Automatic annotation (TrEMBL), chain A:
Name of one Pfam family that matches: Fer2_4
Cofactor note: Binds 1 [2Fe-2S] cluster per subunit.
Keyword DNA repair listed: no
Catalysis: reaction(s): a quinone + NADH + 5 H(+)(in) = a quinol + NAD(+) + 4 H(+)(out)
Name listed for the protein in its UniProt record: NADH-quinone oxidoreductase
Species of the source: Roseomonas nitratireducens
The family this protein is said to belong to: Belongs to the complex I 75 kDa subunit family.
Automatic annotation (TrEMBL), chain B:
Matching NCBIfam families: nuoE_fam
Family: Belongs to the complex I 24 kDa subunit family.
InterPro entries: NuoE-like (IPR002023), NuoE_dom (IPR042128), NuoE_N (IPR041921), Thioredoxin-like_sf (IPR036249)
Xref: PROSITE patterns: COMPLEX1_24K (PS01099)
Keyword Isomerase part of the UniProt annotation: no
Cofactor entry: [2Fe-2S] cluster
UniProt protein name: NAD(P)H-dependent oxidoreductase subunit E
Pfam families: 2Fe-2S_thioredx
Organism: Roseomonas nitratireducens
Keyword Transport annotated: no
Region (Disordered) residue spans: 174-205
Taxonomic lineage of the native organism: Bacteria, Pseudomonadati, Pseudomonadota, Alphaproteobacteria, Acetobacterales
Keywords of this entry: 2Fe-2S, Iron, Iron-sulfur, Metal-binding
Length: 678, 205
């Protein structure tokens, strides 16, 4: 540790820390542009100048290491003058187009010019102009505004692992770009918008849409993958205008994936905004009482075992528990939340959770990935793996389609389960080995055997010890784990999805269940579809109950680690659509099976009672593995090649399939499944 | 940044270049091959000069270098565009690089430039002559100020020039000759203009 005095305040910081970090520790704000705590230090903007005792001139605090006994001054005439000078230089070539710039109101350059700069300009000469670059449908560029801090260059190379941005030419002619014009290939490209301190990189869909002070800001959770990135939904009136990440060190640090960030325009399209009932061969608009009556009528005569319910990828925990309770009231144990057919063993939580936790990845020292393209199934989690890889000594191997580009080197072992064992020696040699099984790897006839074999491998290589749990299942969407935690799986004598679809039930209640082909439902089955988008499944329904999308309700979501988090209502659901658990609750009342909760507090108490996960919002119970007994399987897996579950990253769920922005991306980027090199 | 010139469809190192690359790569420890990016770009430029008569570095060749050194292509583009010595556009057979920095300018670089334009049929800096023989570029000081003014033709320095001697040099190049580099007035390296005035004999004499 080093003792440093900043403006008379003494602080202790680790050796090797920068002067800027010491100043922060002392509570002093240091203006900066190029410095970003999650990127390497570039030291090129010079905005962070401070005075250090005995140094002959001001030093760039972000790039200057502390020394014991150092005295730093952040508010002297020299420092103030230096900042003013740097600011003046930065503004020489910066257009003063704030009134038409989308960064206006939340621009570091604007704020810092205001706080630290001159009050007027002395510059009368010509400014340089830089041609804008086309780097894809998501990030808009106005390169004349670029101050060449190179944050974007470092982000792309270091965090995203797609080194495609750079600074070409030099001096007056230096430009940031891709040199050869191309769309950035990262699934994290939206983060460039956040880290660019000026308005050079802004959101294309948000261009000229709004000013930050007009927005209502609502904290929420990204449910379009299973990472559970913490987000802020910015809305105005009835519309979501943009989504940006919030900091959560344990989950997403400060990043979020492009699908979650940019697909919200899909919230306005193809919405189910009123109930519909199938009458005389066609769907007709109905009122809520009519829709409820149609369902009640059909269910009335049925024994419990002929009724079933399926929960899908985007179902929130509240509605899942309500539907489960409703089914219990009907005497049905036919529940399943594995609507994609994944053979998940629901008998023990660590069979379905990402037990190492996302933060835990940074402790691991070897990794085997089974049947998952993590980069596209969970881009933010993949960035964490990359971060671990960048720290050194982290062998990674994968089983699945050859040619995956995970953004870090990984050895391809083979296409099917047979190749899993080939990495055993490396895993054994490691102290904290990790195995990640993609949910997609279990969506096959021998899925249960794959799961069992992966667990067995983890146990054999020492990934399961009393203080390290190296077995991980990576889910695909925000609603999948919550339903497992709530035990939305066949109860005593209950039928699973396959049995229900094989004529095992006469009535089927689908809650956001879009994961299977509607054609598999027998013609005679009465289908209730509760959801928010008129995707394929809604087309098969006999009754449609319009629900709320994740931005339109106060709801609880559980990420792949088993971490429950709350999203809040940002905008109201369209038309007559309602919060999902209230739909189920209202129905239950109509049929005289009233569920015992009717406000948010009560249903949350019910959740907490159903699973401890919901009693510790935001937390995750991390631990080792005490019991090595694995999931049940009757046979060994076949060696059929793994197929990735998400063929087109930008169109993986009902919301993104309704989004124009995502459709544009899908056009530009196309399907990204393995390139089958060779 | 998009290329306004024709890019070759592909690039491959020839045997001679490969031999050079093998020697170059040996200079860097395992895992640090990226350090060889500048020498390799230079090899590319030389080979292009020999093969096509235009010593430049096409984009496909930068990709080949990136691939060879295990670098992201953009990292190579950055280097190639940063250094003036790499031509990222096709140039003439001879690259006339005129120094216009103060010492050369005081000693008459404007005349040298005029001679280049007249004899080489060049409109100005950045131009390539219609016959494809010459490209004219303005350079900053190349460290030969003692013998100012000077120009560099590709890698060779021609010094102590004036209008006539520059024209002569260019005419010679047109004829396919390659005059001996160095001072046009005949002085040896950077001796005083009228011949050596000090250290003319040994101390014991
Ligand atoms: S585009 Fe933005 S982040 Fe990138 S160098 Fe320019 S100012 Fe910095
Ligand atoms: S923040 Fe220190 S030089 Fe840019
Ligand atoms: S000024 Fe021309 S070589 Fe130095």
């Amino acid at each position: 540790m080093a003792k440093v005095t900043v403006d008379g305040i003494e602080v202790e910081v680790p050796n090797g820390a920068s002067v800027l970090q010491a100043c922060e520790a002392a509570g002093k704000e240091i203006p900066r542009f190029c410095y970003h705590e999650r990127l390497s230090v570039a030291g090129n903007c010079r905005m962070c100048l401070v005075e250090v005792e005995k140094a002959p001139k001001p030093v760039a605090s972000c790039a200057f290491p502390v020394a014991d006994g150092m005295k730093v001054f952040t508010d002297t005439p020299v420092v103030r003058n230096a900042r003013r000078g740097v600011m003046e230089f930065l503004l020489i070539n910066h257009p003063l187009d704030c009134p038409i710039c989308d960064q206006g109101g939340e621009c570091d350059l604007q704020d810092q010019a205001y706080a630290y700069g001159h009050d007027s300009s002395r510059y009368g000469e010509a400014k340089r102009a830089v041609k804008d670059k086309d780097i894809g449908p998501l990030v808009k560029t106005v390169m004349t505004r670029c101050i060449q801090c190179t944050r974007c260059v470092r982000f792309a190379a270091e965090v995203a692992g797609t080194p495609e941005l750079g600074g070409t030419n030099r001096g007056e002619n230096m430009e940031i770009g891709t040199y050869v014009e191309k769309a950035l290939s990262s699934e994290l490209s939206g983060n460039l918008i956040d880290i660019c301190p000026v308005g050079a990189l802004t959101s294309r869909p948000y261009a000229f849409v709004s000013r930050p002070w007009e927005l209502k800001k609502t904290d929420s959770i990204d449910v379009l993958d299973a990472v559970g990135a913490n987000i802020r939904v910015d809305s105005r009136g009835p519309e979501v205008l943009r989504i940006i990440p919030r900091v959560n060190e344990a989950v997403n640090e400060e990043w979020m994936a492009d699908r979650g960030r940019f697909s919200f325009d899909g919230l306005k399209r193809r919405r189910l905004d009123r109930p519909w009932v199938h009458k005389d061969g066609k769907m007709v608009a109905a009122t809520w009482p009519e829709a409820f009556a149609a369902i009640a009528h059909r269910l009335a005569g049925l024994p419990g075992e002929r009724i079933g319910a399926v929960a899908g990828a985007l179902a929130d925990a509240e509605s899942v528990v309500a539907l489960k309770d409703l089914m219990a009231a009907y005497g049905s144990a036919n529940l399943d939340c594995r609507d994609d057919g994944a053979a998940i063993d629901a008998s023990r939580p660590d069979y379905w959770r990402f037990n190492t936790t996302i933060e835990g990845i940074e402790e691991a020292d070897a990794l085997l990935i089974i049947g998952s393209d993590i980069r596209r199934e969970a881009p933010v989690l993949n960035a964490r793996i990359r971060k671990r890889w960048a720290a050194g000594r982290f062998p990674v191997a994968y089983v699945g389609p050859r040619g995956l580009d995970l953004t870090y080197p990984a050895t391809h072992l083979g296409d099917g389960p047979g190749a899993m064992g080939a990495f055993a020696e490396t895993l054994k040699a490691a102290q904290k080995p990790m195995v990640i099984v993609g949910r997609g790897a279990l969506q096959r006839p021998d899925g249960a055997a794959v799961l069992a074999a992966a667990w067995k491998l983890a146990a054999e290589v020492g990934a399961l010890t009393p203080d390290w749990h190296g077995f991980n299942l990576l889910h695909l969407f925000g609603g999948q784990v919550g339903a497992l935690e709530l035990g939305f799986v066949p109860g005593q004598g209950g039928k699973d999805l396959a049995a229900m679809l094989a004529g095992g039930v006469d009535a089927l209640w689908l809650l956001n269940a879009d994961g299977f082909d509607p054609a598999r439902i027998p013609a005679s089955t009465f289908v209730v579809y509760q959801g928010h988008h008129g995707d394929a499944m809604a087309g098969r329904a006999d009754v449609i109950l319009p629900g709320a999308a994740y931005t339109e309700k106060d709801a609880t979501w559980v990420n792949t680690e088993g971490r429950a988090q709350r999203g809040r209502l940002a905008i109201h659901p369209p038309g007559e659509a309602k919060e999902d658990w209230r739909i189920v609750r209202a129905f239950s009342e109509g049929v005289g099976k009233t569920l015992p909760y009717d406000d948010a507090g009560a249903i949350r108490a019910r959740l907490a009672e159903a699973s401890p996960v919901f009693a510790r919002i935001g937390e995750v119970a991390r631990g080792g593995c005490a019991d090595l007994a694995g999931p049940a399987a009757t046979a060994a897996p076949t060696d059929a090649a793994f197929v990735l579950p998400i063929p087109v990253y930008h169109q993986a769920d009902v919301i993104s399939r309704a989004s124009d922005t995502m459709a544009k991306c899908a056009e530009v980027y196309g399907p990204q499944t393995a390139l089958a090199a060779e | 940044m998009s290329a306004e010139h024709a890019e070759p469809a592909s690039f491959a190192f020839d045997a001679e270049s490969e031999a050079k690359i093998a020697t170059i790569l040996k200079r860097y420890p395992e895992g640090k091959q990226a350090s060889a990016v500048i020498p390799l770009l230079y090899v590319v430029q030389k080979q292009m000069g020999l093969q096509t008569g235009s010593a430049w570095v096409p984009r496909v060749a930068m990709d080949v270098v990136a691939d060879r050194l295990g670098m992201a292509p953009i990292r190579v583009y950055e280097v190639a565009t940063f250094y003036f010595m790499f031509n990222t556009k096709p140039i003439g057979r001879f690259h006339l690089q005129v120094c216009g920095t103060t010492p050369c300018w005081l000693r008459g670089s404007d005349e040298v430039l005029r001679a280049c334009k007249d004899a080489g049929h060049l409109k100005g800096y950045g131009d390539t002559s219609p016959d494809g023989l010459f490209t004219l570029t303005e350079m900053e000081c190349m460290g030969a100020c003692v013998n100012a003014p000077m120009i560099a033709v590709d890698d060779d320095y021609y010094e102590d020039l004036d209008y006539e001697s520059t024209v002569k040099l260019i005419e010679a190049l047109k004829r396919g000759e390659r005059p001996t580099p160095g001072s046009a007035t005949g002085r040896r390296s950077s001796e005083a203009a009228g011949g050596a005035t000090a250290l003319t004999g040994s101390e014991t004499e």
